């Protein structure tokens, strides 16, 4: 430990062989050894898994041409990544994770909103990541050794990946950052090699199926773009798990561009690769993972089995780590490690149910679409709160005081203006939502473009700004 530390200060060791000692407490200045480059690689590397890659197949499945698919991916990810990155300086200024930091705007009890959403989102992404990673391993085994794909074998493959991800999540921030950087280079290089090997079968003039999912070209293009934009938004509650380790003096612009850039580059490489590959399939709606393995030359199949395992670890660990922190924020005297293990068990139960009992893909996509209607206004309110209300000035330790002495107590620990704005934004999103499981009564007005999350965010942000400004003027009145 450094000699100039005060008694009681805890520093995250740079040696990643140690389990991280921090939970949702405020990270002291001496422990903030991360840089914007670390944040960049965390969100670049975490996208290099099949659970994220497969989303890039959707624009082609929706009927778009290759170039239309690529532009929808690029525009959607650009918008979503910028909105996502705007929350990055929040962690550096408060020194804690997103849900706890949100207490500055929602009230110290209001952190429960971000916590519950974060746990649910990461549980869904974790299950999808582990499942598709296991699917890649089994598909490779089928191609190389003639394995017969069965539910038991698929669950066994998913379980192996589950053990790997929970081990890394238990060690925490340091190991996750290291593994994300490693995976960024390895998997990106592997995708490029695969793209080159498949080039003889690729036709950049692929025209699409002509059967547009939303009825015609532009609504379908907007649908694909909206889904891609929503992907970065889904990570909103996770972002400050990593920016809290940035020094408080980190420039706002550097934090924003590091998070936005890492998310955009990682997602763009992953999704563009999937769109490229899907145009080569005999039928665009063929299962992506097994379809890809079937196209690859034998010498690359084993490499992609490795991708299924190694690529799943950073994303899965990212999700479990956030879930553990989130649950600890609701019960501060409990252990982050214990909650991390429980989150992994819950995730594996979800994978088991998806394999044996239901169509997990449809259920998870519908679930994540609906939860984005709640995450989007939460993100928007915190961004408006950071830049326009608090203007980046916070009293971090007051966020951990759960009584009337806290600066962020508001009314019974809740900021009613933020709560009403978030609830209203969420309701707006649900009214316009369209999924395979749930359709809002106003869903038809968006023309099948999946814009519900965007409308939810806009409604929440505008209402919060109006209500908060009214509250401030009332408090300042003589």
The span between the termini is: 52 Å
CATH class: Mainly Alpha
Shape: globular
CATH topology: Hydantoin permease
Number of strands: 0
* Biggest β-sheet strands, sense, barrel: none
N-to-C order of helices and strands:
HHHHHHHHHHHHHHHHHHHH
Structural class: mainly alpha
Q: What proportion strand?
A: under 5%
Query: CATH H-level name... which superfamily?
Result: Hydantoin permease
Return the CATH architecture. Answer: Orthogonal Bundle
How many separate structural domains? 1
Please estimate the helix content: 55-70%
Report the mean per-residue pLDDT as an integer: 88
Instruction: State the assembly state of the protein chains.
Output: single chain
Indicate the low-confidence ranges by residue numbers: 1-17
The whole-angstrom Rg is: 22 Å
Describe this structure in words.
- By secondary structure, the protein is an all-alpha fold.
- It has one domain (34-369): Hydantoin permease, CATH 1.10.4160.10.
- The chain contains 20 helices and no strands.
- The protein is globular.
- The termini are far apart.
Which short descriptors sum up this protein?
single chain; 478 residues; mainly alpha; Hydantoin permease; 20 helices; globular; disordered N terminus
Summarize the structure in short.
The chain is an all-alpha fold.
List the helices and strands and how they pair.
Blueprint: H1 36-45, H2 50-53, H3 58-61, H4 66-85, H5 88-94, H6 98-101, H7 103-106, H8 111-145, H9 151-171, H10 173-197, H11 217-233, H12 240-243, H13 252-278, H14 288-295, H15 298-310, H16 312-330, H17 336-356, H18 360-389, H19 416-431, H20 452-476
Helix pairs in contact: 1-10, 1-13, 4-11, 4-13, 8-9, 8-14, 8-15, 8-16, 8-17, 8-18, 9-16, 9-17, 10-13, 10-15, 10-16, 16-17, 18-19, 18-20, 19-20
């Amino acid at each position: 430990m450094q000699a100039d530390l005060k008694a009681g200060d805890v520093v995250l060791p740079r040696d990643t062989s140690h389990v991280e000692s921090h939970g949702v407490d405020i990270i002291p200045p001496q422990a903030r050894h991360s840089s914007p480059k670390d944040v960049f690689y965390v969100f670049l590397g975490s996208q290099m898994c099949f659970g994220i890659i497969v989303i890039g197949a959707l624009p082609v499945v929706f009927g778009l041409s290759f170039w239309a698919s690529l532009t929808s991916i690029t525009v959607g990810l650009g918008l979503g990544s910028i909105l996502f990155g705007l929350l990055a300086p929040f962690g550096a200024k408060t020194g804690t994770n997103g849900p706890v930091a949100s207490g500055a705007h929602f009230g110290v009890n209001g952190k429960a909103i971000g916590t519950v959403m974060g746990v649910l989102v990461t549980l869904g992404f974790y299950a999808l990541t582990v499942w598709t990673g296991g699917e890649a391993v089994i598909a490779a085994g089928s191609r190389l050794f003639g394995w017969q794909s069965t539910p038991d074998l698929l669950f066994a493959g998913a379980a192996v990946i589950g053990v790997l991800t929970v081990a890394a999540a238990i060690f925490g921030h340091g190991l996750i950052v290291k593994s994300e950087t490693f995976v960024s280079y390895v998997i990106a290089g592997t995708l490029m090699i695969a793209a080159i090997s498949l080039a003889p079968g690729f036709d950049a003039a692929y025209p699409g199926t002509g059967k547009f999912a939303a009825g015609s070209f532009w609504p379908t293009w907007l649908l694909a773009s909206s889904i891609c934009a929503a992907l970065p938004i889904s990570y909103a509650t996770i972002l400050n798990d990593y920016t809290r380790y940035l020094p408080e003096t980190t420039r706002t612009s550097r934090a924003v561009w590091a998070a936005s850039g890492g998310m955009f580059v990682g997602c763009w490489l992953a999704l563009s690769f999937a769109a490229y590959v899907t145009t080569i399939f005999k039928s665009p709606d063929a299962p992506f993972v097994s379809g890809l393995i079937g196209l690859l030359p034998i010498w690359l199949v084993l490499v992609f089995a490795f991708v299924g395992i190694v690529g799943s670890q950073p994303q899965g660990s990212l999700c479990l780590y956030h879930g553990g922190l989130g649950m600890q924020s609701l019960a501060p005297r409990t252990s982050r490690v214990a909650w991390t293990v429980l989150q992994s068990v819950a995730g594996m139960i979800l994978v088991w149910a998806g394999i044996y009992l239901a169509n997990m893909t449809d259920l998870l996509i519908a679930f994540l679409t609906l939860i984005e209607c709640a995450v989007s206004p939460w993100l928007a309110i915190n961004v408006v709160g950071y830049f326009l209300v608090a203007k980046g000035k916070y009293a971090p330790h007051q966020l951990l005081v759960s009584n009337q002495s806290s600066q962020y107590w508001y009314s019974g620990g809740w900021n009613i203006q933020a709560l009403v704005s978030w609830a209203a934004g969420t309701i707006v999103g649900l009214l316009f939502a369209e999924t395979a499981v749930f359709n809002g009564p106003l869903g038809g007005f968006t023309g099948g473009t999946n814009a519900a999350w965007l409308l939810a965010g806009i409604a929440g942000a505008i209402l919060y700004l109006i209500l908060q400004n009214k509250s401030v003027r009332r408090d300042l009145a003589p």
